[in-house]
Amino acid sequence: MFNKIAFIGAGSMTEAIISGMLNKNFLDSKQIHVINKNNKERLDYLSEHFKINCVQEKSALIKDADIIVLSMKPYDLKEALLTYKEMIKENQLIISVVAGISTTYISTLLGNDAPVIRAMPNTSASIGYAATAVAKGSYATDNHLQASIELFQTIGTTVVSKEEDLHAVTAVSGSGPAYVYYLVEAMEQAAVEIGLNKETAMDLIVQTVIGAGEMLKQSGESAATLRKKVTSPSGTTESGVKTLQKHGFAESIIECIKSAQARSIELGKEAQEK
Question: In this structure, is residue 270 part of a structural domain?
Fold first, then answer.
């Protein structure tokens, strides 16, 4: 069990992870410490909302932390690690949720053999439904990997990945919730345009998304098989699906994910060249 977790960065991902951990009683709020670069209002909000320790002093944040979570923008990582490197010890586990940045680069900046785990959760962490992939760096052991798995399992499903696959993970599950929300936005707009009131439409759409997800999870059948089972010949669903095909729905999703993966690679390179 961990006694202290320190977050460097106080953005939406930090908030989501903290919310998930507290909802599952993984840690007491007083065991969680957070700092950020310059937004005191953000720290005040997190402190008031979660009753956690939001600090201004860097050494107080790092001291005695079992796990240090790097949760800042890729462009801010280098400056942050150069600031904290003298304080971080080799017995402290570093977990990075920074998109695009390799464990090798983090270890180089730290200048020591502290174990580094790279993770890619998504914001569904706040309600315990995150999809997270974790990968270990060269100094991390299987025990460090297991510790990270235990942490992220408190906020959803966790899988072990090769680090080179994390750009793809970022594109699929890291950014994935936004794609689903965008789909729901369009379904809501269409529902209103064809006569449903907004509240009724959202109730139906949300349950439809949840039900489809549970069918995928519980049935053991592929998405293609489930889609075909719903699609009766010459029926309403077939008409809708044919319209999606006509407008390149599948191709758009594929290009969307490829674009997100490419941007993850670019972000890593840009941040490391800064």
Answer: no
